[in-house]
Design brief:
By secondary structure, the protein is an alpha+beta fold. The protein has nine helices and 30 strands.
Length: 515
């Protein structure tokens, strides 16, 4: 017997459901008698009134918001490849891939053995064009959109639903939140959107997304808020609203609107295996977008508050090792000297649970509240240290530019022969930090992981060669001897916390035998 296709199975199932439903409706009529015509008419009228009311609400929201939703077209000119020379990064050390999707893959410029030069001086990168959406937030011609819609563009053109077209005279971007504002040339009396309050949203609230998916201008799709506080790794400084309103390529930068016609989010990303809508979309909450755009308009850049700590999520096992009842909070993995946190007395392995009486449930929520806090003012910081609550006072400073650029390439080892220490119970071997030729960990003391047993405790915890172990528990290690003395006091059955550093930053790892 041939196997039915998923489509035919679905059709048969749906048909069966309709038959069963018809029988279920027929039985009550035979058993209890006919329903009064007046009662049936009243119920139908009430249902129709509810449906009509919802339809009118969607129509009202679309009519109020759509005139302020624009098409954003970006054009990027062709880029010539730099002249060939000993510096593969091009003239002046500039990476020829800078500003393109290939920058992360070729951080050192043109790979050895490759030649991107053709006749006439080199092909370089071809011209690019893109289409997104935006929303007018000021009648004098200020449009709010996504950074990725206009990033790197040489020319940006904005088209209104009424057919008017404007060129952008000024573009200010914040890649950290993926937001941008565009000022239009010779614009006045433009239709503007009303901005709502995204903090008042709840899961299940109706919303509509407006934009230009696949260049279909002023398209409206409806759905609900299906999640809040979502984190996307590619955008570090935003917690997203999740919606099942259809969002597709071209919707980026357009508004997510509530039934009052107020913008409560900026559509930004989708979760998709195909590149198109698959039921999950993400929008930047409008309260964050308002804060970012106000700073971009006033200062040209975003000034964020800064504590001076590296933080990581707190999992159940680490929380138990630190004597904390639950896992709510942000674990401090590093306190940088001379920073507000250092001045306030914050220590590594502290767990930050609150900031100015606002609960902190993880790294992103702490980052969010600190960044928007008053700079130069005193703030209360609630921490747990060794399981005991403590309140500190911290004065937040502006985030330095260099903080987000910290990191480096992994260490490259010299020929073997240096002193090492091997722990069979933890399945790890370390060597001295000075056994690297390129020090990716300048300014940090510790020992380097040389190898791990593939099935050992360290491997299970995710530790690999090249990781710098800075502390065993709270004990700093500056040599193989320090590490040996500290680790031999610990048991893999009871577990031990290691404070480590990788090229991505600091982390806390629990080494404990499973079972």
């Amino acid at each position: 017997m041939p196997t039915a296709s998923p489509v035919s199975l679905a059709v048969r199932s749906a048909a069966g459901g309709l038959i069963l439903f018809a029988v279920a409706l027929a039985l009550p009529a035979a058993l209890v008698g006919p329903v009064a015509r007046g009662e049936e008419t009243t119920a139908d009228a009430e249902a129709m009134a509810h449906a009509t009311g919802l339809s009118k609400a969607f129509r009202h929201a679309a009519e109020h918001a759509s005139p302020s939703v624009v098409v954003v077209r970006s054009e990027t000119k062709a880029r010539k490849a730099p002249a060939r020379g000993p510096d593969r990064r091009g003239g002046g050390g500039e990476n020829p891939f800078k500003g393109t999707p290939f920058e992360d893959f070729f951080r050192d410029g043109v790979p050895e053995g490759f030649d991107f030069h053709g006749g006439g001086g080199g092909a370089g990168m071809p011209p690019r064009s893109g289409v997104g959406s935006g929303v007018i937030v000021d009648a004098t011609g200020i449009v709010l959109t996504n950074n990725h819609v206009v990033e790197g563009a040489d020319e940006v053109t904005v088209e209104l639903p009424d057919g008017r077209e404007f060129k952008a005279t000024e573009i200010k971007t914040d890649p950290e939140s993926d937001l941008a504002v565009v000022r239009l040339e010779n614009a006045k009396d433009l239709p503007t959107a009303k901005l709502g309050d995204s903090d008042k949203l709840d899961i299940g609230d109706w919303v509509i997304a407006i934009g230009n998916p696949f260049e279909l201008e002023t398209t409206v799709s409806a759905g609900i808020i299906s999640g809040k506080g979502r984190e996307l790794g590619s955008i570090r400084r935003a917690k997203f609203l999740q919606t099942d309103a259809a969002i597709n390529p071209g919707n980026s930068g357009g508004p997510l609107v509530n039934l009052a016609g107020e913008v409560i989010g900026i559509n930004t990303a989708i979760a998709s295996n195909s590149g198109g809508y698959q039921g999950i979309g993400f929008a930047i909450p409008i309260n964050l977008a308002k804060w970012v755009s106000e700073q971009l308009i006033a200062k040209g850049a975003v000034e964020r508050g800064y504590l001076g700590v590296s933080i990581s999520p707190l999992d159940k096992e680490t929380a138990g090792e630190l004597g904390i009842g639950d896992k709510k909070g942000a674990l401090v993995t590093e306190v940088m000297p001379g920073t507000p946190a250092a001045d306030a007395g914050v220590q590594e392995l502290d767990v930050i649970t609150g900031f100015d009486d606002q609960a902190v449930d993880g790294p992103r929520s702490l980052q969010e509240v600190v960044e928007r806090s008053g700079i130069g003012k005193q703030h209360k910081l609630a921490v747990l240290r060794d399981g005991k609550p403590l309140t500190l006072t911290v004065s937040v400073k502006p985030l330095p530019d260099k903080v987000s650029q910290r990191g480096g390439r992994g260490p490259r080892k010299l020929p073997s022969g240096d002193e090492t220490y091997y722990s069979e119970s933890f399945g790890i071997e370390v060597r001295a930090k000075d056994s690297v030729a390129e020090d990716a960990y300048e300014g940090f003391d510790g020992v380097l992981v040389d190898r791990v047993d593939p099935e050992g405790v360290a491997a299970e915890a995710g530790i690999g060669p090249g990781v710098l172990i800075r502390k065993v528990g709270r004990t700093p290690v500056t040599s193989v001897g320090d590490f040996t003395a500290a680790l031999e006091k610990e048991s893999s059955d009871e577990g031990v916390l290691l404070q480590v550093r990788t090229p991505r930053g600091n982390a806390v790892i629990l080494l404990k035998k499973n079972g």
